[in-house]
Amino acid sequence: MIALNDLSGGEFYLNDDLIFKVEALADTVITMTDGKTLRVRQSPQEILERIVGFKQKIYTGNLEAHR
Q: Keywords of this protein's UniProt record, alphabetized (predicted)?
């Protein structure tokens, strides 16, 4: 799971395996596999970097929280 911030600044964790697509519109919009959408402060590039970092930690066996 990756840590993200909603538009009001609140932090939440998102299961990155359930992301269908990430779009850079006026805000960054994440569409989930169930069709629900989330608007976050992070850019699509930041989200991608967090996902890659989290997956690397899984494969190396270091599963501390990733931010």
A: Cell projection, Cilium, Flagellum
Residue 34 belongs to what H/E stretch? none
What's the pTM value of the predicted model, to 2 decimals?
Answer: 0.86
The residue whose two tokens read 């779009």 is 23
Q: What is the pLDDT of residues 1-56, one digit of tens each?
A: 999 999 999 999 999 999 999 999 999 999 999 999 999 999 999 999 999 999 99
- Distance of alpha carbon 31 from alpha carbon 18, whole angstroms: 9
Q: One-letter amino acid identity for 60?
A: T
Pairwise CA distance, residues 11 & 58, whole Å = 22
CA distances to 10, 52, 63 from 55, rounded to whole Å, are 24, 5, 9
Q: Which two tokens stand for residue 64?
A: 């501390």
23 burial level (CB within 10 Å; 0-12, 13-18, 19+): exposed
